[in-house]
């Protein structure tokens, strides 16, 4: 079966990697739109996300006891494991003529490392307002940049000490309306408040500590040889346009062989929720 698949390749397939606290199912509206454009897609659940995501023991209990202090079940999860999940997904679709690896937000860290490890499995990279650790090795390096701090929102969302609990924890189930609105403003501000609840409740509370803090080494010979596109989100308050532009410029300076093609979408950090049809069109380049 494997040989037949490689001898008779099909068309383009998009491998979709979600960002922090998200999962494969947030891509569903975009996948429907991609299907309408004749494109295949596979959405990945990174370790610690999706239906198998562990939650703190008091997360669903009244008052959420221990939420700010309980050690995360993801504390020992490594970036290598996350990148390995992406490589496994890429191997599943290797029989297609063109494989496009799409990453959103923090998913850019795992996707970039996967592409560095297995560039032969990727024909194009698309970063959807996602981290590009080519100029600076850690996601945290860009989150601490002045370009990020200037207009970012959602800084008061973290629960507990990330280093102590082993995760960057948020509380999507918070009963505090101000907290919920801060979460919406930071990540989904162009999704109506009335429908945001469903998106909010689909989030997981823990992002493994390793993802923002582990250095990634990308090389010109491997990651740098893959054609790449960056889709900017013009009113993004989670990963600001200024820091998106900084990542693009620094990646192009470090890896000049395949400079970014840049496209821009209007709106927030989450176009898969606010404008999935426009996002699908941008992915296929129409």
From TrEMBL:
It comes from the Bacteria. Residues 14-282 form the AB hydrolase-1 domain. One of its GO terms (molecular function) is methyl jasmonate esterase activity. PANTHER family: AB HYDROLASE-1 DOMAIN-CONTAINING PROTEIN, METHYLESTERASE FAMILY MEMBER. This is Esterase EstC.
């Amino acid at each position: 079966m494997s040989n037949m698949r490689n001898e008779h390749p099909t068309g383009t397939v998009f491998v979709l990697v979600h960002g922090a606290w998200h999962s494969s199912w947030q891509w569903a509206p975009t996948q429907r739109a991609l299907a309408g454009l004749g494109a295949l897609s596979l959405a990945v659940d990174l370790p610690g996300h999706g239906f198998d995501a562990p939650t703190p023991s008091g997360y669903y209990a009244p008052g959420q006891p221990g939420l700010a202090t309980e050690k995360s079940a993801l504390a020992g999860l490594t970036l290598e494991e996350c990148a390995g999940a992406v490589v496994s997904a890429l191997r599943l679709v290797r029989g297609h003529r063109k494989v496009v690896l799409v990453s959103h937000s923090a998913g850019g860290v795992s996707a970039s490392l996967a592409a560095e490890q297995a560039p032969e499995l990727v024909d194009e990279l698309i970063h959807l307002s996602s981290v590009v650790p080519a100029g600076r090795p850690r996601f945290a390096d860009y989150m601490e940049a002045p370009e990020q701090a200037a207009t970012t929102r959602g800084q008061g969302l973290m629960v507990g000490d990330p280093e102590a609990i082993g995760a960057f924890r948020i509380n999507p189930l918070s009963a505090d309306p101000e907290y919920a609105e801060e979460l919406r403003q930071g990540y989904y501000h162009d999704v109506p408040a009335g429908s945001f609840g469903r998106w909010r409740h689909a989030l997981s509370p823990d992002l493994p500590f390793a993802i923002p803090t582990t250095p990634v080494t990308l090389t010109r010979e491997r990651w740098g040889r893959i054609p790449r596109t960056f889709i900017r989100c013009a009113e993004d308050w989670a990963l600001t346009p200024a820091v998106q532009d900084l990542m693009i410029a620094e990646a192009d300076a470090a890896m000049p062989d395949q400079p970014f093609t840049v496209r821009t979408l209007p709106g927030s950090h989450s176009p898969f929720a606010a404008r999935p049809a426009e996002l699908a069109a941008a992915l296929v380049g129409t």
